[in-house]
Amino acid sequence: MSTNIWIWIAALLTLAIYSFLYKDNIVYKIAEYLLVGVSIGYSIAITWYNVVIAKMVVPIRDQHNFLIIIPILIGMFMFARFSKKHGWLSKIPISFVIGWGAGVAIPLQFETSIVEHVKNTIAIPWFGGNILLLVNAIIIFIGVIATLIYFYFSTPHKGVIGKVANLGIWYIMIAFGASFGYTVMARISLFIDRAQFLLHDWLGLIH
Amino acid sequence: MNFWIRISDLDRRWIYLLMAVAIILPFFVNITIPIRISPPTQALYTYIDTLSPDSGPILISFDYDPSTQGELTPMAIALLRHAFSKNLHVITMSLYPTGIGIAENITSDIAKEYNKIEGRDYVVMPYAPGYQAVILSIGEDIKNTFATDYYGNRTDTLSCLNGVKNFEQIPIAISISGSSTPYAWITYGYTKYGEKIGVGTTAVSATSYYPYLRTKQVAGMLGGLKGAAEYETLIRKFYHTKGRSMATIGMNSQSMAHIIMIILIILGNISYFAIRKQNKRSA
Fold it and tell me: Which residues are listed as membrane-spanning (chain B) (predicted)?
């Protein structure tokens, strides 16, 4: 059994959280509020030292980089939202963020998520003679078309369009099934981790 | 009929108990379920395995917080053990303020196993805000992005980063994450700078990244605890790594829980249809 106080605290908090599975109770609530409080406090501390001190105070104080005051001031305008009179000032940093974000992100995201994938779906290479990979590529091609048609609502889903849309539903259901299977695995993995922590790190019952 | 009604009315706490037993019991039973290596895991392993100490440092970004540690930490440990076994230099960092502590903890622990020294063999970077900006900035100049390391040493004095300016000298960046940050690495790292990207992700998110594997925008992927167990299997087989293989140990429990889950789904469905049939007859 562990003699480390922090392992004991973590173990007892883990049990406190799992007590919710029996029913909601005060011990669970305390652990829950503690988690939220500690997470926020920790994030604020990290941000304070790594952003406010490292990126704002140090450059001005130690490197005499006074130009940095301009972006700092623009950033501070975000807090103007708390004032009815000066709230309009917050639009300046927001416009910078949106302008920069749109300019940088849109072309790159378009290429990453649309162009590359459309190219890869249209061009069915021979895959060096591997017939299974070719079949796989054809299945994906049909799936993309069928799923897109399912989400095309400008034409009634009747006749050929209806049949292809139905095929799209099958593809979507298979995707949901795969996602659900993976989700089950993910949730169980989290419990496995906690069980290992309790049995190995805390109680020392397993190796 | 009474049996099926009882099944459908079963208090869910019995199911929790059953799952807990199914997960805990395999820890005490010595059974080994063979682990087959999936192509995405093999691809990531093979790529890292082809690197040499002269290839430049690999970058591992711990883009997660304690809520997904259970799945992602075994991956991070396995990747670090592989890198240190091959004497590769490693840069670790996090795009999450709550992930930087995890990154430092794990990196320094595994480094001790291999007698690696901070600054010479590996470097832990501090948290920097704005993940898109951070990735883009590394693409220009990593020492400008992180003027100091996690411990406050100037990055331009660290021998681990000698000759390293940007992604051109970093053969692969691996994002370990339970959120969409690997997507940011693909968008800003791969598309903008052509950087090889590896992904380690939670099982929930794994399906989202398969399309990127197909387009080769992602070099390889570890999906959930299974991906981590596969990687542990590979490094144990080829590098005889020591230390606890958390994911592999957990896979027996995982399999047992899946069997219980499948049985419960089948029982639940039979119960549903049996009761429906009975109700129709009564009507």
Answer: 14-33, 256-275
Q: Where are the domains of chain B?
A: 2-30+255-282, 39-244
- CATH number of the B39-244 domain: 3.40.50
B48 burial (CB, 10 Å; 0-12 / 13-18 / 19+) is buried
Question: Cβ of B132 under 8 Å from any chain A Cβ?
Answer: yes
Q: CA-CA distance, B254 to B247, in Å (whole number)?
A: 10
Q: How many residues does chain A have?
A: 207
Q: Return the pLDDT at A153.
A: 86
Task: Round the average pLDDT of chain B to a whole number and report it.
Answer: 93
Contact residues, chain A, for B186 at CB < 8 Å: 112
Torsion angles phi and psi, residue B69, rounded to 5? -55, -40
How far apart are the C-alpha atoms of B207 and B224, rounded to whole Å?
Answer: 11
Average pLDDT over residues A122-149: 81
Select the residue of B192, B217, B258 nearest A116 (Cβ to Cβ). Answer: B217
Does the predicted TM-score (pTM) go above 0.80?
yes
Alpha carbons B72 and B82: distance in angstroms, whole number: 16
Whether the Cβ atoms of residue A155 and residue A161 lie closer than 8 Å to each other: yes
CA distance A55 to A75: 13
Residue in chain A nearest B226 by alpha carbon = A185
Contact across the interface for B127 and A46, Cβ inside 8 Å:
yes
Distance (Å) from the C-alpha of residue A117 to the closest C-alpha of chain B? 7
Residue in B19, B192, B203 nearest the CB of A182: B203
Residue B31 has pLDDT above 70, yes or no: yes
Mean pLDDT of A6-14: 95
Token pair for residue B203? 């099982």
Please report the pLDDT score of residue B105 as a whole number: 95
When CB atoms are compared, the residue of A43, A50, A206 closest to B27 is: A206
| Statement: residue A87 has pLDDT above 70 | yes
Q: Which residues of chain A have a CB within 8 Å of the CB of B100?
A: 46, 50
| Beta bridge mates, B61 | B93, B175
pLDDT of res. A133? 79
> From CA B229, how far away is CA A173, in angstroms rounded?
28
Domain boundaries, chain A: 126-207
Are A183 and B203 an interchain contact pair (Cβ–Cβ within 8 Å)? Answer: yes
| Sole residue written with tokens 């190995």 | A200
C-alpha of A196 from chain center:
26
**How many angstroms separate the CA atoms of A18 and A10, rounded?**
12
* pLDDT band of B230, cuts 50, 70, 90: very high
